Amino acid sequence: MNSIHKFKVEGIRGEEIDFARYKGKKIIVVNVASQCGYTPQYQQFQELYEEFKNRLVIVGFPCNDFGGQEPGTNDEIMEFCTTNYNVSFPMAAKAGIKRNTHPIYEWLTNKAMNGVQDSTVQWNFHKFLLDEKGQLVHSLSSGVSPFDDIIMGWVTAP
What we know:
two-stranded antiparallel ribbon, 5 helices, 4-stranded mixed β-sheet, alpha+beta
């Protein structure tokens, strides 16, 4: 099955994030970091989540693989996110992408697994957009703003 809905991952507070719960919603999976030039995108993601949470879920995956820009523990990362950006969207436990690749990232970046495309995550805040059926739709680089026309058009489309 070429759907992200088959995945369950550990949340940043030790809880389980079951992607099957997001059936019927669009999903953005994004690798995040607290000490990156793109870190202010947290604020934009939070605003996007608040405005569209009836149809969209964002899942952040903290990762230290790109420039060592997420050195903190899960608790430190969550404290940073809530204190600085009031993040309320789901956050996964710190995960590997380049090293010790998390299974969800193996699936997201491998066409043989996701059925759509091969992708390479080159930096923090790389975005994967998935439709209501959990199928990969877009892979967008770090520099693409959460408010970019591509994302906004996709989120607001019926």
